[in-house]
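Support request, please re-run this one:
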Amino acid sequence: MKSSHLLLPLALLAGAAACTTSDVGSVELTLTGTSPSGTLYRLRDARLDLTGPDAHATMSTEDDPTRVELVQTVPAGSYTLDLADGWRLERVDPVTGASTTVDATLVSADPMPLTVVADQLTPAVLRFRAGGDDVALGDGDVVVVIDVEEGSPDAGAPELDAPPAPVTDAAAPEVLDASPAAPAPSVTIWNGPSGTITTTTATFAWSTTGAEAVDCRLDAAPFAACPDGSRTFAGLTEGTHQFTVRATNADGVAAIASRSFAVELP
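Re-run finished. Output below.
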């Protein structure tokens, strides 16, 4: 899905002093993300109000329905983040793009207190329950992360014991001690530049499932361990680049995700 960004307008309250660049941070909400089970989600029909002592900003997911990220710059300070009623959470088929609204409940604090720190990453988490899976969306100087718990309606029901096998005089066959195969790994890059950027710094974030080891690289550099789920590259040269993440499970099976972008300096 092509990423599009929008820098939303900031409404300063009366009497607020002008801010220098070093006094501000940015809120970035990514609207899509993949859960550890491989399910793709998208937040729709959402309006988020960011309110502080000197500023108020409103972000909407529907100003441009094709947008996958919202970006808002605000002065550093204490804020509350309020998700207005009427939001929907969709499950998206990654192949066909077809979407289905799922039953979900917001279980995190609403409004949520958070602190914007200038030039630092300040995480915030919106948590939803849709029955045991987690999906993390978002990044920026304030990161709005959406966690979704998913599960079947029968989750928690006691498992019935199987009936005992009949007793015979035949010798029992030898049972080999075979370990089950490790779950297949998956990796999704859910944040980072795509298309053309005009800066020499790029930050990427990703999520994995079933991974015993996670490595990443930029362009043709050797893979290096990247266990923290994010990586920032500075001093990028002009031209085309590709960021790649590799997730490997306990059996040595690997999954790879890549994102390409270009640097064009003004």
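The chain is about 0% helix and 45% strand. Residues 131 and 153 are 7 Å apart (CA to CA).
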